[in-house]
Amino acid sequence: MIVRRTAAVLAAIAVIGGAPAPAALAASPSPSPALPSELYGSTDPTYDGVWRQSFALLAQHTAGVRPAAKAVDWLTGQQCANGAFAPYRADPKAACDAKTPVDTNSTAAAVQALAALGGHDAQTGKAVSWLKSVQNEDGGWGFTAGGASDTNSTSAVIGALSAAGGASAPQEAKSAKGHSPYDALVKLSIPCDRKDGGAFAYQPDKKGELAANADATAAGVVAALGKGFVAGPGKEAGSAACAGGDKLTPADAAHNGAVHLAGALKKTPYLETALPGAKPQPDYGNTADAVVALAATGSPSAAQRPLEWLEKNAADWAAKSGPAAYAQLIFAAHATDTDPHNFGGVDLVEKLNATGPAPQTAEKTKKTDETHKKSDSGFGVWWYVGVFVVAGIGIGFLLSGRSRKQQP
């Protein structure tokens, strides 16, 4: 989403619906011959190469597609000897040094993708070790080593820890002062009795105050549940009220964040983003992330309206934005049991595959008339009656814009 902060997030500015990209990050009209053939997307990968590749591969896997070995090898080849990943290394044969701009977000995204694909324990193990080595005393992570903890980075790492080590891994990842990632995350949740109570802030401001951030809230909700970028439908939510109290649990924080998102989506079926000097406009990536967050917390009715809006309106945005955008929509489809091959009439998987090397195989299903019926929860329930393997010799995948979004 996918679409988040600092360097990797700068590239996501182009992912926000209709937002003009900075000149240095503007999309080129056609694939550059200088770009690796194994890489998904045709824009400058300087700030989001590993991010969008990871998103693409993870989305393909989620949709039952086996990525091209060549694309996976490109991703593993981007890893530094210490286990970290930088947004993009033009010459992966050159050893990383102190000037190599490694970051937690690229590393966490790569871990989630490689862990899902399987067979990369050595790479994910080294990456997790590096992430733990740069954990802040409060239990969280900033975008770069030593940076102040933020919700988005901490959430991405929680997803990586869970993907590589299981559900208990994030809680067991204690800082030198004994704080877990969840401790840092809960502190970034705005108390219920304050403005925008329940939302997550990206970071405290200079005065220590917390301001609601939609991108951070969607990320924080899913991470507080111990999930990564990919999350399935959760159990039915309980109370629709924000949960107060002095001792907020991660589950409470996730619930509160979902309540805030549901409230924000009552006025319009999409979340908005306003760049400096511009009017607010629909934010497709944040909206897709919100759908995942709401579905994961067991709020299908709240997720239904933004999901339907995405099905009707997100195709052009994804086509202009590239593999990360298609990945975010596939994650939203997965979270709501929606067919990614028929997302508002668009085959998201086919579109994603077309942005890079051809995958090895793709599983597709045919639906009976019953698949068109809606479940009581409001989401389509698909009864698959046949699985067909479509061979496609070649290369594979993806990464994102959750490159994700920007800093507040």
Automatic annotation (TrEMBL):
- Chain segments carrying region Disordered: 355-375
Organism, scientific name:
Streptomyces colonosanans
Renumbered to this chain, the Basic and acidic residues biased-composition regions fall at 363-375
- Signal peptide range equals 1-26
Residues folding into a coiled coil are: none
For this UniProt record, give its keywords in alphabetical order, as a comma-separated list: Membrane, Signal, Transmembrane, Transmembrane helix
Q: What is this protein called?
A: Squalene cyclase C-terminal domain-containing protein
TM segment ranges? 381-399
Organism domain of life: Bacteria
